[in-house]
């Protein structure tokens, strides 16, 4: 080891941070050899030093004072694994101001305050590395930022949220309703006590924002694209999709279409034979398309202690070697490519899956088809089974599900048609609508 | 652009080199921005400057004199895309001696002379980058060498040869015999006029040697592991595999088993529902297992002009930025980890697929089962169809195929059993044997 040890402060000692400590302190760890220098954990800032921990650290390393951990002039790099956006933002900006390199797994922080954090780092001449912020152990940040430098990336289609993918896989595989699976996932610790950010698509959307910025130099706000969660999916939707030859995944998509950026995070029907449709459980997958490389697919553990720690340690090695410092100022995080505008949602063109609950009366299908037709939406297929799940309205009508697959149309046309459809007295509940991937 | 242009010499102007030139000279190419400097192609060495080319280069760039191209004191980096091992070795060593960084896509060169080339570069303080040498556009060299630095890699299972995978996919998908498909692949230009290296497993084995050296710091010679080609496969093998729920792929495997290295390149039966079994056509796929990251899968175009050029350009950007120079001395190419020995082939334990052609006579199956049993090989399943392809020996016996799947056993036991089986007069042709992946 010619070089001096890399001195680090870790903020937080939850699951991932413990994993990082475990890798760095393991016997015969391979990390120092590959970095050309050793790692010296100077401070680990936690909220409560008296809490029992499953990793052992030398005396004096644990502290409740993140400010000193971040400002210690001896420290080279601050690893932010505390989560949240309030204190994390303070801590990261304080670290940058003190001239420390920053490694973070905090996609919420970067999706919300990325511009501020990246600009501060650039001005100060330090780097921000964030491999662990997207897709856990899958090295997608490096792939997009460093390994496809000869490419113009044209599209990203990805499963980026393990919790919702686990829920969808269980629903489809075991024919269990959403609420059941969610409750079990919470009991097993796969889902948070408050799973809102996972199941409503926010987490996946934050990751997509980061990937898009890195791949296309364009910062998009969450409010600029469609985000639809999995929390309104019924088990019947999984079964209809299967009958039609599809599987449903919470798909995050960025595509360049005629010089505009199409983006959305939605439960989406994917042909069952595609790799992405077969990505089950807590796995993540990213399908990229570059103009030179063609299609490139990466899949692996999108979360979990050691896979995420693997990504954090890769960043640490990059900082130790000096690669991260060279890479950061050249990333496409700053382009703000003015030629790329976000395609307004209404103009997005796709096929759609529509599931209605309708009164089992004459002329119902004709009414629906008429409205769709007047909005220039043509039907590709219809399913209405003879022995459906039976429900009844207050008026005593028998309610049956009706599924329609459309041909290609725009989101705008569909929205107009939908607002008319909602006024049909024979449609008894919210219309379920999902896009179908090409 | 603060830095001066990176000056390069390209050796060869075949398919891949033309792709590299095309990326670097395209209008609004994104490469210079990402590298922080521009690229200046000083020399392109070819065998015949008068041959018509589909890329345009400034006057004086094309030359038949590779020695001057390599030795020009102005040149920073030599991109070796001439192929072959004789002149390529000379050229690369000359470039290194002249203090140039080297980028090469030449797996044969590195599999055969890697130690010499890597050591020369290390001594001279230059780097050798070779992303394009394995799996074309898939950034597997970077992933193994730079992105999984917190992991001990435990296994690699991969499809690394596009030509043989194309042939196997066509045989299985279109029920066509080997010779037919090969002839078509050659006519279409997918297979070389002499496809030996592709179909006998040499190409995949060379790539596996490189990946293994990088992932495990252990240099293994091609003679130390089993290499079996696809050229003895019959269409019937594809059909039996399918009947049993498998697909056959030319699988390259490195695994650490009890501190020893199990390696082989063989047509292998893989459960049909696995992603690797569904990787068809000219695609490549690499499944890695690391102790922290768990399973990570990368798939994409394993060959072809632009995917391979994408990998070469990524290396060029790494050299331009200085990342490649920092990375190279720290790669696990030098460990020669003495604790890892190569597991002798006889000790490898797997299940096997055996296909016999036997005389349709009493006691044939009993004789085979008896020999296998005496070698402690137990049978998992047997297929002998009632209406088989009928053949006849000189003695007039009717010849029928018989397929046996064994339980787990060693290669050694199977080899002993096989040499006894070959002496059975009721077995009329070579025994086809393939491992079954776990």
How do you describe this structure in short?
Chain A is of the alpha/beta class and 438 residues long.
Secondary-structure map:
Two copies of one chain form a homodimer.
Chain A: E1 6-11, H1 15-25, H2 31-35, E2 39-45, E3 62-63, H3 66-71, E4 77-80, H4 86-97, E5 101-104, H5 107-124, E6 128-129, H6 140-147, E7 153-159, H7 162-174, H8 178-188, H9 196-199, H10 202-216, E8 226-227, H11 235-243, E9 246-257, E10 260-271, E11 283-290, E12 294-301, H12 305-321, H13 323-327, E13 341-342, E14 349-359, H14 364-374, E15 379-383, E16 391-392, E17 398-406, E18 409-410, H15 411-421, E19 432-436
Parallel strand pairs in A: 1-2, 1-4, 2-3, 4-5, 5-6, 8-10, 10-13
Antiparallel strand pairs in A: 7-9, 7-11, 9-10, 11-12, 14-17, 14-18, 14-19, 15-17, 16-17
Helix pairs in contact in A: 1-12, 4-5, 5-10, 7-8, 14-15
